[in-house]
Design goal:
The chain is an alpha/beta fold. It has helices spanning 12-23, 58-64, 80-85, 87-107, 141-160, 186-195, 215-227, 246-257, 281-287, 295-312; strands at residues 3-7, 27-32, 49-52, 70-73, 112-118, 163-169, 171-173, 201-203, 209-210, 212-214, 235-238, 244-245, 264-266. Strand 5 (112-118), helix 5 (141-160) and strand 6 form a beta-alpha-beta unit. The protein has 2 domains: 3-173 and 212-240 and 280-287, NAD(P)-binding Rossmann-like Domain (Rossmann fold); 186-208 and 243-278 and 295-312, UDP-galactose 4-epimerase, domain 1.
Length: 313
């Protein structure tokens, strides 16, 4: 059975990848420094190999890579606002950390590295939906960092023969997404506010749109990217191919929760993209990827999880 290293495996998406791989019977190793990942995300997973460490340290990456077949590189400071506030520190994780992972994977003769890219690289270009062949237009340090890391993946594939695949995430949501930070995903922040009887905050007029993608769809796409031979060296959007505004999203969440929800509108955030929707035809053709969980079903699952978490606390 293959051995997988998941960097950032105690985080939101990483823990779901670990859970699914263990369900399939794989050997799973997680590397996380717990700066944003949480140990409780892995408490129910009893057979993984857990290493505490930072991808910003090359020696740590080398040690974690021993005996690994596949790397799912999820470790990142996944926040536009944080990158605006501190571009140097976020660059250390998002760019230098990725370079360390690639060097260690190359030297350990890993079969393939799947890198968690971001739709942020598309910026505010007028073309919609976003296709992988569009010219990047990053408008935040985070987007620049994700683009630089993506280009490192491409270079390592071409120069050294290390198989790499980039999966560009759009707005991923679901259970275990942390609402306890102002940098959290909007759905987790909305869910926490709704269940606590607070007014959710919307930055801007709420008409900005996003391709909200339930985490199970992303997990399926990442594993397909990991194991499809022809995917090596390519970039794929992993999303739903549809979009909704924040106002529409909040109305749907209010209906699903049975709560009357009135948002509080604030000023737009620097670096935020106005509209974002994915073209997923490349992933569909090459990976046989089809999102199986709809926005409404995913929101219902997410609200159920957040409600259970509040009861347990």
């Amino acid at each position: 059975m293959a051995t997988y290293l998941i960097t950032g495996g105690a985080g939101f998406i990483g823990s779901h990848l670990a859970e699914e791989l263990l369900r399939q019977g794989a050997n799973v190793r997680v590397l996380d420094d717990f700066s944003t990942g949480k140990r409780r995300n892995l408490e129910h997973l009893h057979s993984l190999d857990l290493l505490e460490g930072d991808v910003g340290d090359l020696g740590t990456c080398r040690g974690a890579m021993a005996g690994v077949d596949y790397v799912l590189h999820q470790a990142a400071v996944a926040s536009v606002p944080r990158s605006v506030e501190d571009p140097l520190a976020t660059n250390q994780t998002n760019v230098t950390g990725t370079l360390n992972v690639l060097i260690a994977a190359r030297d350990a003769r890993v079969r393939r590295v799947v890198f968690a890219g971001s739709s942020a690289i598309y910026g505010n270009g007028p073309q919609s939906p976003k296709r992988e062949d569009l010219a990047p237009e990053p408008i935040s340090p985070y987007a620049v960092q994700k683009l630089a890391a993506e280009q490192y993946c491409r270079a390592f594939h071409q120069l050294y023969g290390l198989e790499t695949v980039t999966t560009r995430y759009f707005n991923v949501f679901g259970p275990r997404q942390d609402p306890g930070s102002p940098y959290s995903g909007v759905i987790s922040l909305f869910a926490a506010a709704i269940l606590e009887g607070r007014s959710p905050v919307i930055h801007g007029d709420g008409e900005q749109t996003r391709d909200f993608t339930y985490v199970a769809n992303v997990v399926d796409g990442v594993l397909r990217a990991c194991h499809t031979p022809a995917a090596a060296g390519q970039v794929f959007n992993l999303a739903t191919g549809t979009s909704a505004s924040l106002n529409e999203l909040l109305l749907m969440m209010g209906r699903l929760s049975g709560a009357a929800v009135l948002p509080t509108y604030g000023p737009p955030r620097d670096g935020d993209v106005r509209h974002s929707a994915a073209d997923i035809s490349r992933a569909s053709a090459a990976l046989d990827y089809t999102p199986r969980v709809s926005l409404e079903k995913g929101l219902a699952e997410t609200l159920t999880w957040f409600r259970a978490e509040r009861v347990l606390r």
